Structures are given as C-alpha cells and as structure tokens.
Amino acid sequence: MRLLKRVLLGILVLVVAFLVFLAGSVVLDYAVGTDRLDAIANLTIPGTGEAPDVRAYVAQPEGEGPFPTVIMIHEFWGLNQSIVSKADLLAEEGYFVIAPDTFRGSTTGWVPRAIYQVISARPENINTDLDTVYNWLESQPDVDAGRIAIAGFCYGGRTSLAYSLHNNQLDATVMFYGSPETNPEILKTLPAPVLGIFGGADQSISVESVHAFDAALTEAGVPHEIKIYEGQPHAFVEDVQGIQAGGAQGEAWAQMLAFLEANLKSKSTLPNAVAVSGYRAPFAWQDYVLLVYEHAFGSASHHH
Question: Which of 74, 166, 224, 234 is catalytic?
C-alpha cells in the first residue's frame, strides 16, 4: 500500500511539474516574443468605437485595381512568415490579399502557446476584428468590394467558415483542414460557395466528419467542393517551397486557384444568405490533444 501511495504521489508530482513547465513556457514565450509581429505586419487598421486596431500584412498585385480580394487567416501559430509568403504567392495571381492578426498581437512558434492562443481567443472578438478588416477593404480603391473571399488554414480554416456565417457579404469561402460544421440548418445560411481541402491521414479531423460536412452542405443547398488528399496529414500545405514543388501541396493550391477563379471572379451569391449570430465553430478539447500528438509524433515539421 505504501509503495502504491508513493507511486501515485510521484505521478502527481510529475503531472504538476509538467503543467507548471507548460504554463511557465507560455509566459516566457510571450515575454521574449512581444515584438515578433513588428517584423511581419505592414499595416495597422484603426478600430472603430471600442474595437481595437487590427494589424495585418497586405500583398498587392502589380497593375491597376480594383482587384478581387482574399482575406487570408493564419494557423494557430498566429500571423507569421509562412502566411506572409502564401499571401505574396496568391497576390501574384492577381488578388489583393490581406492577412490579419486575429490574436491581437500574439504570434509564436511554440505549440503550447499556440494552443493557448486559440483557446483564449474569443469568437466575438475575432469577428469584431474581421469586421474592421472587411470595412476597411470596402473603402480601398484597389479592392473590388463586390469580390471579397476568405480563406484560412487549420484554425484559420474554421475561422473562415465561422466568419462566413457571420458576414453574409462574402463571395467565397476556402477551408484548408478547418474543423467542419455538420448541421445543414446552420450551413444553409452561408452566402457563397465553399471549398474544403482536407488530409486523409489527418489525426485531428476524421474522414467521417469531412464526409458529414460534404453531405450537410449538399442538404443545405450550398455549392461546394470537398477534396480529401489521401495519405496527407493535418496542415500538409506547408509553405511556398512545398507548393511550388508540386505534389499534394501544389495540387491543393491549384485547386484553390481554380475555385477562386470560378467563384470569386464570377460571383455567385446564394439566396439564403443571412448572418448567424453567436455561432461558435466546432473545435473540441480533444482536437487540441490530437494536434499536439500529430505535431510531436506524426508530422513535426508541418504547420497547423
């Protein structure tokens, strides 16, 4: 009995020590990374009323506008160089691209803090900040205000879907491996076509949930494309180098370009589009655990 108590006490001490380490590492990463966004953002959009300013990265095509426009939402790391490079690559195709910081100044390369950023970000604040971005876009002479889409990766994928349910003026939605919504009653209020790109070997988003998302979009009458890239893990569209090298990354990027060409440059607003108040995109606690597992043991070099 004494031995068992000692073992249990030892386990408890290890668990507490691990939790203290995680909490301390998040605080330390915040302390040493307060100026990370300064090297990335090239625009500050003034907030209105009580809304804060929003920092963002803007990539603009060559030539004269107005241009079709894409709001690009970062992964759970926050706004970083990977998203900046993707924004630049998309701008080369003739799109005005804005990648806003939706974590209000927080960005990291440390998984525990990345998870903390997501679970501490309030959905209503995210929508408020994206409203600030959208309103700013409508006032820009180089932006075609009638051709604005949203696209995002992982956290950004589900955020793109959530914001499309909030803002019924959007003209297309692109989700790269974002947690799907499977309720057709909610999805039927979407304002425009949806592209969903997923990995067949994703440890955090099951193939079954992707099929359910596909079926729910069909039942809701929302035009959509859902593609599962077999054998690919979560966050398989890593970076510009991977995209340009071809393979699944290049194919997924090309699919997005074809979708935007068809649905952003040839606008298709849906008749049932209404704003959904108070919507929270599905993303359960176990998803975070699986993300950590996949990052540590499955695809450590991949972005989320």
Answer: 234
202 catalytic? Reply is yes
Cα–Cα–Cα angle for 278, 279, 280, nearest 5°?
Answer: 115
Rounded to an integer, what is the distance from CA 127 to the centroid of its chain?
Answer: 13
Matching residue, tokens 């095509």: 61
Joined together, the tokens standing for residue 282 give 């599905």
- At 232, list the tokens: 């690919």
131 noted as active-site residue: no
From 171, 202, 239, 287, the catalytic residue: 202
User: Under DSSP, is residue 4 helix (H, G, I), strand (E, B) or coil?
Assistant: helix
**Residue of 29, 74, 101, 154 marked active site:** 154
For this structure, is 234 an active site residue? yes
> 11-45 burial, b if ≥16 CB within 10 A, otherwise e?
eeeeeeeeeeebeeebeebbeebeebbeebbeeeb
Count of CB atoms situated within 10 Å of the CB of 119: 10
Closest CA to 170 of 193, 154, 186: 193
Half-sphere exposure in the Cβ direction for 165 (13 Å, CA): 22
Rounded mean pLDDT for each run of 10 residues along the chain, 304 residues in total = 65 53 48 73 94 97 94 97 97 97 92 90 96 97 96 97 96 97 96 97 96 98 97 96 95 97 76 54 50 48 44
The pTM (predicted TM-score) of the whole model is 0.84
Determine contact, residues 221/186, Cβ cutoff 8 Å: no
